[in-house]
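Chain A, query sequence.
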Amino acid sequence: MMYRVITGILRARTAVHIGSGKGNEVTDALICRDPRGTPFIPGTAVAGALRSLVTRLAPRLGFTPCVVLKEDEKRDRTCACEVCHLFGDVNPSDQRGSLSAASRLLVFNAVPHAAGQPATLIRDGVGIDRASRTAARAASAKFDLEVLPPLTEFELRLELQDPSPDDERLLAAGLAEWQAGRMWLGGGVARGLGAFCLTELEYGVQDIEEVDGLMAFLKCAEPWKHAVKQDGWLQERTRELYPVPYTCDTPRAAYRGWVRLTGVLQAEGPLLTNDETEAVMSGFDHMPHFAWMRQWEKPVLTGSGLRGVLRSHAERIARTKATLRALREPEASKKDYFLAHCPACDPNRRATGKDDKAIALENCDSLLKRNEGSCQPEEIGHDPEKDLCLACRLFGTTRLGSRLIVEDAPLRGDKPEFKMLDFLAIDRFTGGGAQGAKFDALALWKPAFEIGIHLDNPRDWELGWLCLVLRDLADGWLGVGFGSAKGLGKVRLKDCSATFGYLTPEDMPYLPQDRLKKQKSGIYTTVQITPGCSEWHALTKGWLLAFDGKLEGFERSDCVRLEEDTYFGRADCLYPIGGHGS
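Chain A, predicted structure.
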């Protein structure tokens, strides 16, 4: 019998929130802490993220799909797939003849690697009205949460008990992805938090079959530190993996590929991401976000702030295209056509009745809840996108997690410049200063941030949509952060590049395989393309055509049919669009 252990270091690239489900008078959401007050990552969080990753990879590596991925089967029965063999059955049974078994993988709590407790921060957040681009006061979407800073390190420890060769191959596939930096844990992942990289991975064994070895193992308080290291274990196991093509029988949730967009977001003047905690401590009314408490040389552009800008502009593009198509319809049916084919929910729905509260952050989830009495949509687990608009499919809702991750963007360089700004509200009647409306801010002066955007299983129409948004960002049309109406936050995207990862060439048939340099990252083959090259122009043309085709064929289901719109029937008489036929 062998004792097998895997150890490593989880190093955070961004701030991290591993929620405890509790709050206090300081913050709405506290992180997990042990009885001594030391932050840690529960083993359940690590195991859940690892199992989810491996479950979606398994069908593409020639293993049996887990029952949780099969849409046409009940999920209350036991499963005998290789993933359940490693992690334990999803629905264990003690009936005679059942193949259920406990997990062969033990995942321990990840504790801080360095001595002492990591200093935590309070991250403020506010929901943004996507029509007015101001704080969504009607939805009361103001919140904060406790986070750990970037570069916080945790010790990972996994133990394997009597694993089969398939167990080790599946586990190696997941760990290889984590080692490549595609690892996210905790809450707020899609909005910039919880990005990790696995480093210093080691696989060790110790023979406990003989009495001497067993006694030495039992007497040791930390036996994983004395296991004999096996060099090259991860590389050997991943070489035994052979991806298979994606077919019509492959579960839809299985991994096909990913794209990572990187670039530099260069501000053209002052930029401010307001951090209330730093403002209170510094004496300014408004202060930038910093990666570490009181570390002024490390400002950060939060992923939530950048994501909100991207979603707002993406919805504006889609609604504009839908409006232009609706204007080609007969006068009497323009509004009805738009409400039936609008690819993005109305971001500023007004109250329609006495008891109907206005929802400033409308989405398909709130529409489904409001219509559940008259409409019974199919369960979200069987067809997650059936009753969702295109914006909710890409950016996610509370019913469907987003495949799009916008990470916190660190400052490029180590010497940020600051500029103090004074503001004074003007009384609109007297023309003088409004009493008590004097405030100041410490803004960053022309900062540059390194952004990273990750999209799993990208579709061609989604890539076309994102290209339109990033094009406008590169042209300087979008503002980021606090005070964009006051001239702050004017930015341009530059030095952009796209890295595509796929398991087989069929996953991304639009890539010119013969003209691109291929590399290896984790278990994926990767290619990198820079916007501006000939290959990029050909690709974007196809993606934009796919996006237009998707918009043309989209129609909302009855469960998420819009009741009204902010333009048709309201603003169309005040702001008509010339040339209705164009």
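The chain is about 25% helix and 20% strand. The CA atoms of residues 413 and 448 lie 8 Å apart.
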